[in-house]
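Quick one: C-alpha cells for this chain, please?
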Amino acid sequence: MVVEEDDDYDRHRHLHGTHWTLDVVFYRTQTIQVMDRSVDLQFDENGAFSGSASCGDISGSFEVDDNATLSITSVSFGENCQGESPTELFADRMRAARTYEADENALRIATNENGYLTFSSK
C-alpha cells in the first residue's frame, strides 16, 4: 500500500501563514519604497489574503498552482483607502501578479510588464 501525501501546504508553506510587510513596488520606471506607508498581508491556505495599510483594511482572494503561478482574483480596501495613489498602484500590481518566490524571509511577486512587489516577513 502506497500513501501519497498532499504536499501543497509544504510547497506553499512560506506563502501561507507568514505575515508579510511590503517593501517595494516596481512598475516600469516607478519604484516606490513604502517604508512610510505600511502594508501588511497574510495569505491563508483557502485562497484568501487579508491585512492592513496605513489607510485601512485590505482583503482579497488568490490562486496558486504547482509552478508558483499566482493569480490575484480580487483586491479590496476599506473606504479610507479609496483614491490614494500608492494604494491604487499596489492594487493594480497585485491584480497583475503572475508568479511568486518565497522563503522564510522574503516574498517577491512578479507582475506583468516586468514589475514586482517585494515583501519581508515580520
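The helical segments are 8-11, 85-95.
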